[in-house]
Specification:
GO terms for molecular function: 3'-tyrosyl-DNA phosphodiesterase activity; double-stranded DNA binding; exonuclease activity; single-stranded DNA binding. With about 625 residues, the chain is an alpha/beta fold. The protein contains 13 helices and 25 strands. Strands 3-9-8-7-4-5-6 form a seven-stranded mixed sheet, sandwiched between helices. Strands 10-22-19-18-12-14-16 form a seven-stranded mixed sheet. Helix 4 (about 175-180) links the parallel strand 4 and strand 5 (about 190-195).
Length: about 625
């Protein structure tokens, strides 16, 4: 439920309350491209913190951290022993040694420069780039990462950016504009911000309107409130639709689906993921699309049309003009509403629909599905689990019919622990974007139920007792960048050598995001679907979400086998011995480190007296 004004608000402390004058100037965009004299009136950090406090009350929503207190004596700061410095240095310093056997795959040869973003490979050579890329973090190796500015940059110097559609949960218009290329012409650029603050009196909507009026050309900025019929739902999708035109009049479009809020905090030191269509050309006159990309186009248009023509009609009318034939991916979204189960293209039923057409090679061993999220909601437990295992994990087990059927996979859920949040670049401040309730008996019962699934974010920072797999560590290179990325990956083997499918999405582990258990229309029945009565069942979805799934079949070429593998550095794999190798950038370490006995997941609702790597404690 939305937080009432009477509820106690949390404050961020160092040695005193944070004031505007206390915020480092690095938090504030200095100027807006095309208007050097302009400046933002309120620091983005305060806007971000205030908005997280005001608008997020359910577990699927993101809230600001409780009070941080700086330790008085210097001796009480986090020590190497307290944060596992040996493992920490192994994760951040190439070539360092530790007790664990570590294969360092996070660096590239010294002469390999950080690369500018490129369009995904054309259908003739789909193995060149990994479908998912991580965002740039200045204090970590930057090889093959991507920045917001590079995503917003037109394809050529003679090309002009004409329109930006930004779908997100939290927006900062000054930050978005400050991320545009410096030569952007703001007098002609149209910006549409799609958000979930539909009430006119909503503080976030008022703030966005103030930012619009502060823009040098306020008439070029349009605020688009999404319809929010569900009280526990959020507009959580994170997408960019960009349109550009060449000097000669050639138009192009770009679709970006990612996991970051449009605020500086999310794009700086948090682990985030990006899928990028590359720049799409116009359809040739009189032609129709019959391709993988055409199906992607159909599904993303289905999603966008659900907002209503008054909100996104202009966008859908533009997108239909472009060819999606170079895309090798499937779109999966969520839109609030109640849907007949047999016809639902959103949420877990939509994902299950895709997986029923995804062939998985049967093996003699069980595969593994790894769910990696930044938020776990209060799930429908009661006297028994009525959603997580019977509905959601069951949907993730679905495959195309085959003989023999693949063995049912094992499941793991990656969620950071308090010591991983403490050791992160931002310390406890990172915990403001990572959510799980661990306060009430019901919360603790849910954690106990999920404990067999729970694994740490970073194997390289795990205590030896958590590492039960003797295989060498493959480093994701993001141990100290707390996760806001969400990935769901099915591996063919327990050793995670090859991949059946991989999903990057804004959706966390919640029935608000993925949809409820099927119920009989008009009833409160929470039972499972009865065979033969699927048409009588409906699924309720509360939030807007957007994601992209890829699997080997999307990259097939005549006469060549496709192998999808986890990738821990670099930007793709090559064709070898007649096989197409598709690399999926994995942000976490493998093999996984299970929670040790009694270990708890991070929860922003609990106090932590132990100081983080910045010398701060965390008190609720």
């Amino acid at each position: 439920m939305p937080e009432s004004p009477s509820m106690k608000r949390r404050k961020l402390h160092t040695s005193k309350d944070v004031r505007v004058e206390d915020i480092p100037t690095s938090e504030i965009p200095k100027s807006i491209p095309g208007n050097p004299s302009s400046s933002t009136a309120v620091p983005d950090f305060l806007r971000e913190t205030a908005h997280r406090r005001r608008t997020l009350a359910t577990l699927t929503k993101e809230v600001s951290p409780p009070p941080l207190r700086r330790a008085t004596p210097a001796s009480s700061r986090a020590t190497p022993a307290s944060i596992g410095a040996t493992a920490l240095s192994s994760a951040t310093t190439p070539g360092s040694s530790s007790d664990a056997q570590i294969v360092d795959l996070t660096t590239s040869p010294p002469n390999e420069a950080s690369k500018a973003p490129q369009a995904p490979a054309q259908p003739s050579s789909p193995n060149t780039h990994t479908p998912f890329r991580l965002t740039h973090i200045s204090t970590l190796p930057t090889n093959h990462t991507i920045t917001l500015r590079s995503l917003l940059t037109p394809p050529t110097t003679s090309c002009t950016l004409t329109t930006v559609w930004c779908f997100n949960y939290i927006h900062s218009l000054p930050f978005l504009v400050s991320s545009l290329p410096s030569d952007t012409n703001l007098s002609t650029l149209r910006i549409h911000l799609v958000h979930g603050s539909w009430r006119i009196e909503d503080a976030n909507r008022i703030r966005l309107e103030e930012e619009r009026l502060e823009h040098p050309y306020p008439g070029n900025v349009r605020l688009v409130p999404a319809y929010m019929p569900e009280p526990f739902g959020t507009h959580h999708s994170k997408m960019l639709f960009l349109f550009s035109v060449e000097e000669g009049g050639e138009e192009m479009a770009r679709v970006v689906i990612h996991t970051a809020n449009m605020i500086p905090f999310d794009w700086e030191n948090m682990t985030q993921g990006v899928w990028d269509s590359g720049w799409l050309p116009l359809l040739s006159p009189g032609t129709e699309e019959f391709s993988i990309g055409a199906e992607f186009k159909s599904e993303i248009l289905r999603y966008l049309k659900a907002y209503g023509s008054s909100r996104t009609g202009e966008l859908t009318a533009e997108l239909v003009k472009f060819s999606f034939s170079q895309i090798r991916a499937a779109f999966i979204g969520s839109v609030p509403g109640k849907y007949k189960l047999s016809e639902c293209h959103f949420g877990w039923p939509g994902l299950e629909r895709i997986l029923r057409n995804t062939h998985i090679q049967p093996t003699s061993t069980r595969g593994k599905v790894i769910c990696q999220v930044s938020s776990i909601a209060t799930l429908a437990m009661g006297s028994k689990d009525s959603w997580l295992t019977p509905i959601f994990l069951n949907a993730l087990s679905v495959t195309a019919p085959s003989k023999p059927l693949p063995l049912k996979p094992e499941f793991s859920i990656i969620f950071p622990t308090p010591d991983e949040i403490r050791a992160s670049i931002n310390g406890y401040r990172s915990g403001g974007a990572v959510h799980l309730k661990a306060v009430t008996p019901a919360n603790l019962k849910q954690i106990d139920y999920m404990r067999p699934y729970l694994c740490r974010w970073s194997g390289s920072l795990a205590p030896p007792s958590s590492q039960t797999d003797p295989a060498p560590l493959r480093l994701g290179g993001r141990a100290r960048a707390a996760p806001h990325i969400k990935t769901f990956i099915r591996y063919n083997e327990p050793t995670c050598k090859t991949i059946s499918w991989a999903l990057l999405t804004s959706a966390n582990l919640s029935n608000q995001a993925w949809g409820s258990a099927p119920t009989t229309k008009g009833s409160r029945d929470r039972g499972l679907v009865i065979p033969g009565l699927g048409d009588e069942k409906e699924v309720r979805i509360c939030s807007y979400e957007a994601g992209v799934i890829v699997f080997p079949g999307l990259f097939e070429e005549e006469g060549k086998e496709v192998v999808m593998k986890p990738l821990f550095h670099g930007d793709g794999l090559s064709v070898e011995e007649g096989k197409i190798h598709v690399g999926i950038r994995v942000p976490y370490d493998l093999p996984l480190a299970k929670y040790k006995s009694g270990e708890m997941p991070w929860s922003p609702g609990r106090s932590y007296a132990e100081v983080d790597c910045l010398g701060q404690s965390y008190l609720v």
